[in-house]
Amino acid sequence: MNHDKTSLSLRIRAAFLLLVLACGLLFGLLTLVFVYTTEDALFYQRLDQEITRQQLLPAPTTPLDSHLHIYQTVAEFPADLAAAYQAEPKASELAGTAGRHYHLRRWVHPATSQPLFLVTEVSQQLVVRPVRQTMLAVYGSLFALFLLLALTLGWYLARRAVAPLQQLALLVSQEPVAAGFASQFRDKEISVLAHKLESSLLRLQAFAERERLFSRDASHELRTPLAVIQSSCELLLLQPPIEAAAQRRLLQIASACGQMQQLIDSLLLLARESDSQHAPVPIAVVPLLQQLWQQQQQWQPRPDLQLDLQLPADLQWQAPTPVLRLLFANLLQNIWRHSAGGIIEIQLFPQGLSLKNPIQKAAAPGASGFGQSIAARLAQACALHFDSQAEAQYWCTRLQPRQPDQL
User: Fold this and answer.
1) Percentages of the chain per state (helix, strand, coil), in multiples of 5
2) Rounded to 5 degrees, what are φ and ψ at 359?
3) What does the pLDDT look like over 52-104, one tens digit per residue?
4) Inter-CA distances, 130 with 12, 71, 133, 136, Å
5) What is the 3-state secondary structure (H, E, C) of 353-385?
6) Could you point out which of 29, 83, 213, 291 has its C-alpha 20 to 30 Å from the C-alpha of 323?
7) Which of 342, 348, 345 is nearest to 313 (CA)?
């Protein structure tokens, strides 16, 4: 389980904070742009009005407004304005030295052929600059206040929204789940989710209880008669010599009992949840395979099958002991049932272990069916990848460790 996931409550509060922060910065920027644009528009309006008045006169004359000046060339500019104009000849708003600020218009009078310059120095007429610090301080204070209100509102809404989910998560994490827990939720969406979860979890809980009882009963009720049958067969075989046909049938019954016992063990193991009793431990593979091979030969002798173990004597695998034992036992049992006579090769390949057995001519072994399904599930419980397919005259079953992203 990943414990590094971000809290939903924290994400809601962060969303509120980011929203208010983005809106505050955006509208603050728009406010500054608006006031500066409005202020500049007033200065340009004065310049345009004076140019319109000058156009009606026979020749350019001194403007009525003492803050306006007409210059015929750049050389007539004040020194700071001339330097700024040389740097930006296309600009209509220029900053001078000592806090001076200029606005200018280029225009042509009907009585002259050369363009003229109408200039105003507005440092003493600026409205925004003197109150800029105060305006920013007031705006910053209001912005901080609204950020605090947004955090408070986000915390309140996050708490209201997440509290039922946290309560629901706590209830569904309990084992066993209490019946009727969904009735305590009043919000429509949470109530629908809670009722659906309650219904599903109670069904799963009932199913798990039925499976537990079935596994317990099956373990007792099936194993007991099998043990009686197998013991009876062994006692009959130990009695004075009996007919060969009867002895062969008793051996078949004993073999079938052993195979049935193995099948029951496999199914019951797969039905149980994994726990610490089935933790992976190092297991010596060669002795285990040799023991299971001898067991199969005792249950159902097949002199036509020979085992060729091409494995290192010290080979070990990390796996739950009972699961790996049942896995190899099932694979050998499938070979016993479906393999033609010959050599059974068990060897290593770069990614794992392979079992090869001759294919019967009548039917290909293990391509599908109950035995292969159990073996595949047992391999999955051992964190092994299971693959079985025909190759030329052999049927090849491969087992290889799963990669972490395949688990």
Assistant:
1) 60, 15, 25
2) -85, 135
3) 998 888 888 889 888 899 998 888 899 999 999 998 988 888 888 888 899 99
4) 40, 29, 8, 11
5) EEEEEEECCCCCCCCCCHHHHHHHHHHHHCCEE
6) 213
7) 348
Strand order across the beta sheet in which 101-107 lies: 68-71, 116-121, 101-107, 93-95
Report the predicted TM-score, pTM, of the whole model to 2 decimal places. 0.48
List CB contacts of 244: < 8 A, sequence separation 6 or more. Answer: none
Residues 177 and 399: their CA atoms lie apart, in Å, by: 39
Give the C-alpha separation, 304 to 300, whole Å: 12
Asked if 334 and 371 count as a contact pair (C-beta separation under 8 A), the reply is yes
Residue 212, amino acid: R
pLDDT at 140: 87
Structure tokens at 169: 């998560």
Cα–Cα distance for residue pair 89/296, rounded to 1 Å: 101
Average pLDDT over residues 274-284: 69
